[in-house]
Amino acid sequence: MSSLAAKTISAMLLAATALGGTALHAQETVATYLSRIKAIDKAGPRINAVIALNPDAAKAEAAAKEVTGPLAGKVILVKDNVETADPMPTTAGSLLLKDNSAGRDAPFMLGLRAAGIVVLGKTNLSEWANMRSGQSSSGWSAVGGQTRNPHALDRSPCGSSSGSGAAIAAGLAWGAIGSETDGSITCPASLNGIVGFKPTVGMISRTHVVPISHSQDTVGPMTTSVKDAALMLTAMAGSDPADAATAEADAHKTDFAAGLAAASLKGVRLGVLRRAVGGNPKVIALFEKTLADLKAAGAVLVDLDYTPPAEMGRDEYTVLLYELRTDLAAYLQSVPASSFKDTPAARTLADAIAFNKAHPAELRWFGQDEFEEAEAMTDTAVYKKARENSLRLAGAEGIDKLLADNRVSFLIAPTSPPAWAIDLVTGDHSIDVGMGSLAAIAGYPHLTVPMGAVEGLPMGLSFMGAKWDDKRVLEAGAAYERARTVPVPKPSLKRWGE
Asked: Is 184 a catalytic residue?
């Protein structure tokens, strides 16, 4: 890269990340973001976060001028397992779905469009939302290749909402849509140094989103501030007759951004999940500084000695395997035949497995052991027992009990470890930090907010609350965001240590 090009990219990055991105993003246009994507994502450091661009984005931007409100004209990217009516395919990163253009919006997208949001394009992801192989590299897909972390190009962006996290960190859009089954919003948000919010399962419709599990799947916002995440959630939330989990959403929908500026931690009791911190001295030191900020803001810290029972994760895996087979088949059967131009129409998980075996590019770096396990997971009685047990252990006997027994409002912990090295040969390798599976399995809200960095690698702070307590979780996160004194790193667009 030439010196001039490097300076240009550096200037773009500074503009995108100044003041957390919010102030300057408010003035930026589709053209600005396209220029940045060209310079940073497709050339230069090549983050590889954007998998497709919307040819109608400029037209949508012009139409947004007729809309009023805080989201009018804001430019977002959408994870490529979410259908939009724009002329772009929804691939889930798989070559099987490379022509999947049904021309329909996921219902929550209608709320965003009505609020004036402009869809710029789709983001890369861990293929099939990281539920194909146990040895995968987060952020890799056959369609999009490997996404890189803007803070350290040779380090993982986590997944499966890898492109969404990396894109927002690099200033490629104002906000992004991610999706999560277990950690797929919160982990990439943490590793990329941004805000990510996994709402209560059922707050937002999952219709026309490529699924893993109807028990745990949700979409959510990924942004540079808690306020921006709350604004997006307000437009996204709501009941959908086609998604039974959302039956109560309208009753819990509110203006999630209202009151955030006045939110306080004074007197708020926070349950500190000490065993989620791990044993790394630098991670421990950063977390202690974060606890000091929380205490200075008036929070009451209550140490909790809790370890999730092993059977909770074991049974969660059974649930995900069973529901992947059934839920993916239901989705594929809704895909128009025209979406399979060069391949036989896929209507089942077995069809996807056969496609991968016939296409070496799909299995270049890792296999499909989880797909194959899911295809064999057909015992409904075992599945139902596993779901009942995992939900009980994470919900009633997990988060609910911890909150009640310790008289705390929220649980806090580091979200995820610092980013590990990208390794396509042997897959992800990281240290054990975080306890977000509790909120994922229970279906409860989970917010991650940047809390600083270890050796230049971002880490987030998790706030987890009770079911439908989304607004209060966002308020706690916003109050911490203002109280934080630890510096939050800006992306280097270099390899780690350079």
From this structure: yes
